[in-house]
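User: Show me a protein chain along with its predicted structure.
Assistant: Here is one chain, sequence first, then structure tokens.
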Amino acid sequence: MDIVIANSQRTRQINRRRLKQITQALLAELKVAAGELEINLVAAPEMTRLNETYLHHAGLTDVITFDYASPRRQTSNPRPRIHGEIFICVDEAIRQARRFGTTWQSEIVRYLVHGILHLLGFDDATPGARRKMKRAENRRLRRLAGRFSLAQLAHPASISA
């Protein structure tokens, strides 16, 4: 699985190595066979531009997912492949963390889970689908938080000699 993490925001320092480890663990748990995933950490102005340009929605949002995979076909391989890009707004993660009494690091991971679930075919367009997706999102976030210290996303990776 090819995972690229790009960080163009300057609001918070983010340990990209830890985020990649969390992403790899999530993909393994979801039994994703292979693919390509780019995770973009952006600031509010860029996320607003993306939201308005590509989704034609006014204003800011927390996460946007672009699925570049061919339409899913039924195959004998039960392990899905993904090919996509996830944009995560760090500024919005900070705002939502204050609103919901969580940490911005936890919100970042929640958005990551949400984006990957979209790449796996989850939808949140209807109330029923939204509830189903939210349950899956919460379950995955709890498992990741039990396995990783999400607070470590706030610290740059240490360099060893």
